[in-house]
């Protein structure tokens, strides 16, 4: 610890959540997420409905697998025709916005929450994540708080994204970096 800094052991016991958020979290984790997981694999409409009941803004024809874990769905926005694969984690302590035609493959982890390590009480921070239209995050990609992924970008499997990525690139690695342009060919 630097000079003049004192550690307060009780500072971390103060919740950063409002009463409304606490109640919402209990209801979602007790009922919403449980019902979500119990749905059949192709009951996309029911899962969309559950998320909307808890405040998520979900577009048309969104496909979310039942094994997806969503924290605080009221901070989630998903555009039309997007999909989230099996065992993905969408940790929406801050706002998470997915554009239209976004594809998150299995085990993708979007983490819109962190702590300020420069303070002894490690206060919760909730920076947003934005994934623009037509992005594909391949299997097991991690996206850190405060990241924007540009339109049309593809992020390769097992990559970790800690900084913004530009539009229409193929990116990979840890940390993920652009490796080439993404060029679409006619179908």
Task: Explain what the structure shows.
- This protein has 187 residues and is α/β, with parallel strands linked by helices.
- It has one domain: 3 Solenoid (UDP N-Acetylglucosamine Acyltransferase, domain 1), CATH 2.160.10.
- The chain has 2 helices and 19 strands.
- The strands form 4 sheets. Strands 2-5-8-13-16-18-19 form a 7-stranded mixed beta sheet.
- Strand 18 (169-172) and strand 19 form a beta hairpin.
- Helix 1 (19-38) packs antiparallel against helix 2 (44-53).
- The protein is flat and about 60 Å long.
- It starts with 18 loop residues before the first helix and ends in a 6-residue tail after the last strand.
- The model has no long low-confidence stretch (mean pLDDT 94).
Rg (C-alpha, Å): 18 Å
Overall form: flat
The mean pLDDT is: 94
Stretches with pLDDT under 50, minimum 5 residues = none
Summarize the main sheet: 7 strands, mixed
Strand runs, count? 19
Give the name of the CATH superfamily: Hexapeptide repeat proteins
């Amino acid at each position: 610890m630097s000079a003049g800094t004192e550690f307060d052991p009780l500072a971390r016991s103060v919740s950063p959540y409002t009463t409304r958020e606490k109640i919402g979290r209990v209801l979602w984790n007790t009922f919403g997420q449980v019902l979500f997981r119990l749905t059949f694999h192709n009951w996309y409409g029911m899962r969309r409905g559950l998320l909307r009941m808890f405040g998520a803004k979900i577009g048309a024809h969104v496909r979310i697998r039942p094994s997806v874990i969503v924290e605080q769905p009221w901070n989630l926005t998903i555009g039309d025709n997007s999909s989230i694969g099996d065992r993905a984690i969408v940790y929406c302590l801050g706002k998470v916005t997915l554009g239209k035609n976004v594809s998150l493959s299995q085990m993708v982890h979007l983490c819109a929450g962190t702590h300020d390590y420069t303070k002894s009480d490690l206060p919760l921070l909730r920076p947003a994540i934005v994934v623009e239209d037509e992005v594909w995050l391949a299997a097991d990609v991690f996206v850190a708080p405060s990241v924007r992924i540009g339109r049309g970008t593809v992020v390769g499997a097992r990559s970790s994204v800690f900084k913004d990525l530009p539009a229409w690139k193929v990116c990979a690695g840890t940390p993920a970096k652009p490796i080439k342009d993404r060029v679409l060919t006619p179908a």
